[in-house]
Design brief:
Helix content: 25-40%
Shape: globular
CATH topology of the largest domain: UDP-n-acetylglucosamine1-carboxyvinyl-transferase, Chain
Number of helices: 13
Number of domains: 2
Bound molecules: shikimate-3-phosphate
Strand order of the largest sheet: 23-24-1-25
CATH class of the largest domain: Alpha Beta
Number of strands: 25
CATH architecture of the largest domain: Alpha-beta prism
Structural class: alpha/beta
Strand content: 25-35%
Distance between the termini: 12 Å
Length: 446
Amino acid sequence: MTGMGSTLDYRVQPGTALVGRIRMPGDKSISHRALLLAALAEGESVLEGLSTGTDVSAMAVALQALGTRMEAGAPGCWRVHGGPFRAPDRALDLGNSGTAARLLIGALAGCPFDTVLTGDASLCRRPMRRIIAPLQAMGAQFEAAPGDTLPLTVRASAGLAGLHYRCPLPSAQLKSALLLAGLRAAGSTCVTESVQTRDHTERLLEQFAGPPSAAATRDAYGYTVCVQGGTRLRAARLQVPGDFSQAVFFIAGACLAPGSELRIERVGMNPSRTAALEVFRAMGAAIEMEGEAVLSGEPIMTLRVRHTTGLHAASIAGELAARAIDELPMLIALSACLPGCTRLRDATALRTKESDRLQSLQEGLQAVGIRVEGLPDGLNVYGAQPRGGVVHSHGDHRMVMAFTMLALAAAQPVRIVDCDWVQTSFPGFVGLARQAGMVVQEQWGQ
Ligand code: S3P
């Protein structure tokens, strides 16, 4: 976010302990799905605790353009009056949000009108072929920019046919797009994946429609979930749990800063999201959990993190890399500050996120004096104390937050350039970091 040509930089002071009790913003993945399913459901849904980031706002604005009546309450609270979509009178601009774009492509396939979807420069580079190809097999039609990217038109359709699809890559956005299209298709639509990705769509369908008609099953290949075309969705009241992916930044900060003792309350602990905990444990981190509860079909817990000595680097590969995909920037930045070599493999998916995260991580770590070797699908990182320096966000919210926390372990302050991208997922990030004890100066410049 570089409005009017100016950028926001952070200057982060090393060494300050993270202490006290904090709460994370509403989970971004669940917030997108809750808004979209509420828009498709009959009646008035009441949603609380949604992410207030610009990604989820882009979803809300797009749904309004599709005719959904929505009333905003306190921040993160919406009353949504669901019903059939109508043709929008303009292109839907999804900003930086891959999740909004891909879920909406699925939900709009099968609608009797054309819709144009677009986004910012980063989103317009991200691959959409993975979604378009199986939706075409269901009968949907698209016109995409060269390379199957946005801007993309979802063509009016006279109807879709159900599909049984094996995902060639682990992607919750792909699975969810097909399930959403399946709600409008004739017959059943089943999606099988070999690595179980986040299952928030499946859980929310239970809140809006009762159990998915063929409940999730496992076969020899993996996990299969099915929906029946024509399933009626009914309004629901939901509270969104705190975002585990955002909690990971604060867990890592507490691991890095001596004296830290942090409670992170009411964090979403859906097992399809918490693979990063396996990596923290492999590093020797002290994380305790308590107070298990369920919020809108999702498990939540309070996490207690204490700084301990003797942490060491941990390598990440295979299925673990896929299951912790959004947490890899922070996990690698943390591991880079610990003794030992971090080998990251099987993480090619990082190249097509908000930035090329393998490249952004490599450049950022090198900028603070860490030795890194880049590989097509990962990195070798030789752990050492970062010396401080200037790191670029590459327009990526997770780079901003990962390097803000890495700075806690540095010998000198770290300046991070172009930080306003944090607004996409976590507008309160700096406020919360300061509340926990960090010293972060913000500076607008050219
Ligand atoms: C998401 C799925 C993941 C993840 C993204 C959010 C979702 O993307 O990286 O931040 O909410 O479904 P992929 O589906 O591309 O793996």
